[in-house]
Amino acid sequence: MDQSETPLLSALEEYRRLDRYGFSPPGHRQGRGVDERVAEVLGRDSFRADVLASGGLDDRLTRNGYLSRSEELMAEAVGAEQAFFSTCGSSLSVKAAMMAVAGNDPGGLLLGRDSHKSIVAGLIFSGVTPQWDEEMHFSHPPSPQQVREMWDKYPDAAGALIVSPSPYGTCADIAGIADVCHERGKPLIVDEAWGAHLPFHDDLPTWAMDAGADVCVVSVHKMGAGFEQGSVYHVQGDLVDASHLSNCADLLMTTSPNVLIYSAIDGWRRQMVEHGTELLGRALDLARTTRERIERIDGISVLDDRLLGDEASHDLDRLQVLMDLDELGVSGYQCADWLRENCRLDVGMTDHRRILATMSMSDDEDTADRLVSALEALSRAAESFDPPPRIDLPSPDELQLESVMSPRDAFFGRTEMVSADRAVGRIAAEQLTPYPPGIPAVVPGERLDRAVVDYLHSGVDAGMNVPDATDSSLDEFRVVVEG
Are 135 and 69 within one domain? Predict the structure, then answer.
């Protein structure tokens, strides 16, 4: 196949060049009907490109095959057997993969307990415990041995799903885990939302398809150059029916996808095939020198080899610059707020003692200088910060809540709001997810314990964001009415 092709992007260009017009959705008619105040902010060109149906770019409405051709090119570019585009983000793509593998299987699905919040809804939660670094209060992806132990415990599960890379950039031994799953004839799904760039440079961690995964989901907007919501799921092997997977996605996704998202994926794939090695090589070099510069700043430690090893992660994406602030005596929440307010700089993730800066192929010496200068200023300013509010950090055992109901039954059952004190010992009816990174601390159907309730309540007081809580202050929790 000719990887210089961009079927969707070229069709969009032709539509505009020929001055075509459609009496079909979208109703803004290439921006003609858009309020001037909206156009001033969003730009009228963005509406002129929004022509999926009227431009004949929707494969369901025409026989042009622009979308399917673009998907075939993507699959070839990354070495998958098939690829499917989604405009509803990796959250939808992962759910579609889960439905395809375990939608009608009573055995459920083995999931990592560090799974993203989009994964756990509606499933029997058989938790693969992540490797826990008690000193750092930090979870690593599960090891092959841990996955093997969970298969021994849940032999009837339909498949397994892990997250790699994690939002921190840490990666699992996917090849080892895939071997464990395939010994049992079961598929492995990898939520690789943070790994869209991995196939395009040899110095990055191994991409899931190359490591033997059966389904891999990536978010193009995270580490690639697409729009938000752009996602691709890849399939290989004979353990997952690709047609059934596509049908599952069709049940969930919108019937009016945005051609801008599709076209950006199409163009990004071409860019990576033609220039990915060069662009990502330059980004990795920049990340390396930036890490070295940050490491010289008083009180800030860049986490690198500390994250790797037999009892830690298998590999690391070094474009994710994770910094420990413990020596400064301040919290990650305080630092993120200070950087945003004083340096107009946003970081990718925060927790009680860390911040993370995500670098990409779009960064250069200027943006790296801006990051380093802001961190130097933060180091000088930190001594003036108030002492950080105390967070009651639970032990690894206390984080492993007992699952006593299915998430679905708990979420849709009879519920009530109770105070934090009265919530201890009750069954949660809501998902509670510190965000970022979006990993649930509580899943509906789990019995709340004192340690997790105190952790979340004190965390919110310290600056943690738990956006899916019914009561954002977490003074009250939604629980199942029992009896």
Answer: yes
